[in-house]
């Protein structure tokens, strides 16, 4: 589903992502882990054609991201790190807007379903700019799944959500994958990975220092924190 | 207090320079100086038709206008900044998190604007102007001119601050009041004579310096500012409002446009944001009325010009500023994760722009009829469409989705002036030779389409 070879991005002298090779198969729930500033967001932006890599190749759904970023964005649901829905539309209008951009028909029921599943139907007629952060994140989740893509890429899916909603989102993601979808998430909370991911990569200072399944013998039964510290030192 | 002031200055500088690089921004004053120098040098050609006093008067009004633009930007700009950088990021908003009163912050904000733009506009403008004059052996008193131009700038600025305060406090009512006053003004001053313009206090201070008039000028600056500060109203997010879903309805009405969903969003952004439809009245119709009123008087100094042609050209240029309103709500990053090109967003903005242009279009039609020149209506319409298209295509090419900020960059601003100035003056000149030559403007339409095509390619490449 996702293949990256020697993927790198420099911002001036900073090597935000440094020669990463990555392979993610259909049906995986992949977690990209790493501390603040390690390159997760930069990685996601390159995978989704939002920025051009300094070096390397990347393909998603078998489409060369550099050659046809629009196609990749069509086929993928994406939630960026800083969710910025246009401010003067209401939550519901925003979903209609996205649906129009994606040329969908009969999306109204799906919108309703998301409002009730994530429990924000009371906010659907409020302007996006007046929504709380958590509610915006819910809206972005709904937006990303609206066209039922085979692949969804989410930068920090659980950020700003309360424990109850985190539970619901985790359940949804697991369910989505069990029905044949593929999910790529980034997070700096290690334990989320153990809870829901089927495979993971650990990125540190732009380098991918580990990648493998959650039952990889290298990890064993240790807390991920210990494993992580060992890798980093 | 001083610390706050210093930080605001730094913030302003960094914000501007971040948008177009340090060098581009630092060169801006040089471009201003160059332009004003050309202006005063051009006197050597025009002295037969325009007197030196008229030029001085003109530049005092120009600075008055610049001041009100800066004030207007501070007022509309706050909303823009807010959208772009988020609530907490600007120091002007820090009263929400720091123990400083809003008034102190705002007072700092005004003083900062004044000093900042003194160095950015007023000083370089004066230097360029006086230097140009020396070359052609005309002599102005530099410090007096610097002071009176600066006062002009401040008067413009403080009046717009006052207007914005009235508007913030009274909202729609103020708008109607304003329209009413303007209409009254129009009726009352129908027979306005050119001499009235010579009474601009800062200009009078230059021609006949006296303590009285100096005090008048300072009062005109201080009093509106103080009133603005006393009645200062900062809009905290009020109670959460609920809106009916209008998306489907509006986009269905617009569906003969390819980008009807974007236009719906533009419409909703526009009508629900601060000022709303008032923006059209405030920043378009009122200025147009003023131009309509003043133009015949101003053109008296230059004989033989067709006032209606000049008016149409000016309206078309002002119309292009509507493109700024349309893009000020958007950054490409809010679309970057959707299957869209920058070109798609630009095209959608041009769709909305063409719809908004109905307003200036009607203005031109009405003006033509009012002037009793129904016979010339086709020429005027073509001239309007061609110039409006051309100016907006240049704007799109040079600034993409970042219009407001990019025009402060020296290179961009200079290219903008060079691309538009000669063409517009050329049109007016042709019309003076022979009225039917305005039809040459038709050629601008294919040129604009070509420039737009180039722009789409350019911005797709740059923003990706
Ligand atoms: N546009 C940019 N310009 C310059 N440097 C950048 C830019 N974007 C990211 N960086 C730098 O690249 C590095 C990686 O940043 P990135 O945002 O990818 O980290 P992250 O893993 O997502 O962090 P976080 O967990 O805080 O979201 C950081 O050092 C950051 O400062
Ligand atoms: Mg990040």
TrEMBL record, chain A:
Keywords: ATP-binding, Nucleotide-binding, Transport. It comes from the Archaea. The keyword Nucleotide-binding applies. InterPro entries: AAA+_ATPase (IPR003593), ABC_transporter-like_ATP-bd (IPR003439), ABC_Transporter_VariousFunc (IPR051782), P-loop_NTPase (IPR027417). Transmembrane segments: none annotated. Pfam families: ABC_tran. The keyword Transport applies. Residues 2-232 form the ABC transporter domain. One of its GO terms (molecular function) is ATP binding. PANTHER family: ABC TRANSPORTER ATP-BINDING PROTEIN ALBC-RELATED. This is ABC transporter ATP-binding protein. It comes from Methanolobus vulcani.
């Amino acid at each position: 589903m996702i293949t990256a070879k020697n993927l790198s991005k420099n911002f001036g002298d900073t090597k935000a992502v440094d020669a990463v090779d990555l392979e993610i198969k259909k049906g995986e729930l992949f977690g990209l882990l790493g501390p603040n500033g390690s390159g997760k967001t930069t990685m996601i932006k390159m995978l989704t054609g939002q920025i051009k890599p300094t070096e390397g190749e990347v393909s998603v759904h078998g489409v060369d991201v550099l050659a046809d970023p629009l196609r990749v964005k069509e086929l993928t649901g994406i939630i960026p790190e800083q969710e910025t829905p246009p401010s003067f539309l209401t939550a519901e209008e925003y979903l209609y807007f996205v649906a129009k951009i994606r040329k969908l028909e009969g999306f109204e029921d799906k919108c309703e379903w998301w409002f009730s599943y994530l429990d924000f139907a009371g906010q659907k007629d409020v302007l996006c700019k007046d929504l709380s952060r958590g509610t915006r994140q819910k809206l972005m989740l709904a937006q990303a799944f609206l066209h039922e893509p085979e692949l969804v890429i989410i930068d920090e899916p659980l950020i700003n959500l309360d424990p109850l909603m985190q539970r619901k989102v985790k359940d949804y993601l697991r369910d989505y994958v069990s029905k044949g979808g593929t999910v790529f998430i980034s997070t700096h909370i290690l334990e989320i990975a153990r809870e829901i991911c089927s495979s993971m990569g650990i990125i540190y200072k732009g380098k991918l220092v580990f990648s493998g399944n959650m039952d990889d013998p290298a990890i064993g039964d240790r807390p991920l924190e210990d494993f992580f510290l060992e890798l980093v030192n | 207090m001083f610390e706050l002031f210093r930080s605001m200055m730094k913030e302003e500088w960094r914000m501007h320079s971040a948008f177009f690089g340090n060098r581009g921004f630092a060169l801006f004053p040089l471009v201003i100086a160059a332009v004003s120098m050309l202006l005063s040098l051009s006197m050597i050609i025009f002295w037969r038709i325009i007197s030196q006093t008229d030029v001085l008067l003109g530049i005092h009004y120009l600075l008055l206008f610049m001041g009100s633009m800066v004030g207007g930007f501070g007022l509309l700009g706050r909303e823009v900044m807010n959208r772009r950088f988020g609530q907490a990021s600007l120091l002007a908003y820090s009263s929400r998190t720091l123990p400083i009163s809003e008034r102190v912050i705002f007072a700092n904000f005004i003083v900062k604007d004044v000093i900042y733009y003194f160095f950015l506009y007023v000083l370089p403008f004066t230097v360029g102007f006086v230097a140009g004059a020396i070359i052609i052996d005309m002599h102005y008193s530099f410090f007096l001119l610097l002071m009176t131009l600066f006062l002009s700038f401040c008067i413009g600025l403080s009046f717009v601050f006052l207007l914005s305060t009235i508007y913030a406090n009274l909202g729609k009512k103020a708008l109607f009041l304003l329209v009413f006053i303007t209409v009254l003004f129009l009726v009352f001053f129908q027979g306005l004579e050119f001499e009235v313009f010579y009474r601009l206090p800062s200009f009078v201070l230059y021609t006949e310096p006296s303590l009285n008039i100096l005090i008048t000028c300072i009062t005109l600056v201080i009093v509106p500012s103080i009133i603005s500060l006393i009645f200062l109203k900062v809009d905290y997010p009020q109670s959460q409002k609920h809106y009916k879903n209008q998306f489907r309805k509006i986009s269905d009405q617009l569906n003969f446009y390819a980008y009807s969903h974007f236009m719906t969003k533009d419409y909703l952004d526009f009508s629900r944001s601060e000022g709303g439809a008032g923006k059209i009245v405030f920043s378009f119709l009122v200025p147009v009325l003023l131009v309509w009123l003043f133009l015949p008087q101003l053109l008296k100094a230059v004989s033989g010009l067709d006032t209606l042609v000049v008016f149409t050209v000016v309206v078309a240029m002002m119309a292009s500023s509507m493109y700024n309103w349309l893009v000020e709500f958007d950054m490409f990053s809010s679309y970057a994760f959707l299957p869209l090109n920058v070109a798609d967003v630009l095209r959608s903005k041009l769709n909305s722009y063409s719809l908004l242009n109905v307003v200036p279009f009607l203005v031109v039609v009405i003006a033509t009829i009012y002037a009793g020149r129904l016979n010339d209506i086709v020429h005027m319409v073509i001239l309007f469409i061609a110039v409006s298209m051309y100016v907006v295509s240049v704007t799109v090419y040079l600034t993409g989705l970042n219009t407001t900020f990019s025009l402060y960059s020296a290179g961009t601003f200079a290219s903008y002036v060079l691309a538009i100035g000669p063409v517009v003056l050329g049109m007016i000149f042709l019309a003076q030779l022979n009225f039917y030559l305005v039809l040459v403007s038709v050629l601008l339409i294919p040129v604009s389409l070509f420039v737009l095509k180039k722009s789409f390619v350019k911005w797709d490449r740059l923003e990706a």
